Amino acid sequence: MADIDQKKTRENSQNVLKRYKQLQRIAPTKEELEYYGRQHFSELSLSCLEELTAIRVAVEKVNSKSRQIIEQRYITLEISHKSEQKDKLGYSQTIYSKTWIKGEIEFAQYYRDGELLVYED
């Protein structure tokens, strides 16, 4: 089996994860969906909800340390610099970076059954 192209795979993961907050604004909330029903929402809203679910499922499967970094960088509404995030977690810069890279690769493996993985030739 070919090796994973980490750079391209990470780029794919980042592109998907960066869309999370935008998708969250467009998609209906669980409460809205229960109250109004699916027929009340546009196809766009429902496809955004489906995409959010796929992202959440993949993030939940990532190991806990990497998941913390991914959630802080892409999922939570709190905006902070990478240095603040690593300090909150108590990681050195090196450990933070390695854990982040590992998390993005894991995310790519779990997101829609590896759809984001890119293999070297």
Topology, please?
Layout: H1 6-18, H2 20-26, H3 30-36, H4 43-61, H5 64-75, H6 82-89, H7 93-110
List keywords for this structure.
single chain, 121 residues, 0% strand, 69% helix, mainly alpha
From the helix content, strand content and strand pairing, which structural class follows? mainly alpha
Number of strands: 0
Q: Unreliable segments (pLDDT under 50, ≥5 consecutive)? A: none
Shape: globular
Distance between the termini: 11 Å
Number of domains: 1
Give the helix proportion (percent range).
55-70%
Give the mean pLDDT: 89
> Roughly what fraction of the amino acids lie in strands?
under 5%
Order of helices and strands: HHHHHHH
Tally of helical segments: 7
What is the gyration radius calculated from CA atoms? 16 Å
**Major sheet attributes:** none
